[in-house]
Design goal:
Layout (H helix, E strand, L loop, with lengths): L9 E7 L3 H12 L4 E4 L11 E4 L2 E4 L5 E2 L3 H6 L2 H4 L2 E2 L3 E6 L2 E6 L5 H10 L4 H16 L2 H5 L6 H7 L4 H16 L8 H13 L2 E3 L6 H8 L6 E2 L4 E4 L3 E4 L3 E10 L3 H7 L8 E11 L9 E4 L6 E4 H4 L9 E8 L6 H13 L7 E13 L12 E3 L2 E3 L9 H20 L2
Parallel strand pairs: 1-2, 1-13, 2-10, 7-15, 13-20
Antiparallel strand pairs: 3-4, 5-9, 6-9, 7-8, 11-12, 12-13, 14-17, 14-18, 16-17, 19-20
Helix pairs in contact: 1-14, 5-9
Length: 417
């Protein structure tokens, strides 16, 4: 059979979905010498890691950050080509009638010490924070993965933090990380996240988060990736595209999002997911002259940041772009309530702000309760494999690692290695 028609060729592996997991899996399989076809339903690679240009603004699909500490990221992505700029180390929290600053004590110790006089933290909490951060930063990741698992709230209590500090510091900040307010997320996952934050730098590419999968896709062999190629079913011989276009392969890796993966593999257990909505507002004046995350102790929003303070080109010249995320969907009246909360938090008039984009991500992050495996094998049947953040920790690192794991299992099965 001729390979000139890629949709009738006999491939070693078809990978379904060109998100981070699928891109990593395809690249590793190509490196192993296998013939790989990566099929993506959308018009560009990346899955949820997507960036659009809207009214002259650079708009990510939800508020996203890039952590330079992730091992898979450092292995696969040439960081200099991303033109990263860092967020301020620490964050601001609207607590009552004040905007209080919490600075990273490992990077700006003088500002962190000011938290004592500002009333955000007492000596006990700062000592507990130093001990927690030091342990998580220095301990091997494998050790953290094997630690006793409980809820994040219980772990913080056991680490010596006061309830007041958890409510004023951890809960507002982590609600934007875990996309839940009750700190019910696995403490193992929390420690891994805290480790990555302590060891890396939270930043954003100059062209938005979509630049990351763009670089990953550029590393693939020419012709390996096919865009606008939706897979509608798996078959004994491979897959079907658009319902009637067969693509034959010895193995199929489903690297699509959780909903699509469950449709293609009906017996696949998929965890529930959390939803987040991000509002992008354009304003004539920046409400905060620094690229700092702002949180709210009252929980009216999960996080807000003036993105144009990070990258001025993310907004038209002379304007500022503010991204604000809330837990859940875009229900009626919510943007108005968020705008009112931002007016109080930034201490400015927001009535003239223009809403340029609303991005709701329904499969933003898997629910990760205590006891949930932080990684799973990819093989789900003869010639069938699955990868993605629903098979690992809900992060870019987890997705890339899951794709790498799937590639190893596929290569071993097909080559006898």
């Amino acid at each position: 059979m001729s390979d000139r028609n890629p949709y009738r060729a006999r491939w070693d592996v078809v990978v379904v979905g060109a998100g981070p997991a699928g891109l990593a899996c395809a690249q590793d399989l190509l490196t192993a010498g296998l013939r790989v076809r990566l099929l993506e339903a959308g018009d560009r690679p990346g899955g949820r890691m997507r960036t659009d240009l809207v009214s002259g603004c650079t708009v990510d699909r939800g508020f996203q950050v890039f952590n330079t500490a992730y091992p898979q990221v450092r292995r696969r992505v040439p960081l200099r080509r991303l033109r990263l700029r860092p967020f301020t180390p620490g964050f601001l929290v609207r607590d009552g009638d004040r905007l209080r600053r919490f600075a990273d004590p490992t990077r700006v110790p003088r500002q962190a010490a000011a938290g004592l006089t500002d009333g955000l933290a007492g000596p006990r909490d700062l000592a507990a924070l130093a001990a927690l951060t030091g342990w998580d930063a220095l301990a091997p990741a494998a050790l953290l993965r094997r630690g006793r698992d409980t809820t994040t709230r219980r772990a913080l209590s056991g680490a010596g933090f006061t309830d007041a500090f958890v409510e004023r510091f951890f809960r507002p900040f982590l609600s934007g990380v875990f996309l839940e307010e009750d700190l019910e997320t696995s403490s193992r996952f929390f420690h891994l996240v805290w480790r990555s934050m302590a060891r890396g730098t939270l930043s954003l590419p100059a062209d938005g988060i979509g630049a990351v999968p763009g670089l990953l896709a550029a590393r693939l062999r020419p012709g390996a990736l096919a865009l606008e190629s939706p897979v509608t079913a798996l078959t004994d011989e491979g897959v079907l595209m658009d319902g009637d276009r067969p693509v034959a392969a010895r193995a199929v890796v489903v690297a699509a999002g959780p909903g699509a993966a469950a449709r293609l593999l009906p017996r696949l257990p998929v965890p529930p997911y959390r939803t987040v909505t991000t509002y992008y507002h354009l304003t004539a004046h920046s409400p905060l002259r620094e690229p700092t995350l702002v949180t709210d102790a009252r929980g009216r929003f999960a996080g807000s940041c003036v993105m144009s303070e990070l990258h001025p080109a993310h907004a038209p010249r002379g304007c500022a772009l503010v991204a604000t995320s809330v837990l859940g969907g875009d229900i009626g009246g919510r943007e108005t309530a968020v705008r009112a909360a931002l007016a109080e938090c930034y201490e400015t008039d927001t009535s003239g702000w223009d809403l340029v984009a609303t991005r709701t991500v329904e499969e933003a992050l898997p629910v990760m309760p205590p006891g949930l495996p932080l990684s799973r094998r990819s093989r789900v049947g003869p010639g069938r494999y699955v990868c993605g953040d629903h098979r690992a920790t809900g992060s870019v690192q987890g997705a890339l690692a899951s794709g790498a794991r799937a590639a190893r299992e596929v290569a071993a099965d097909l080559t006898g290695g």
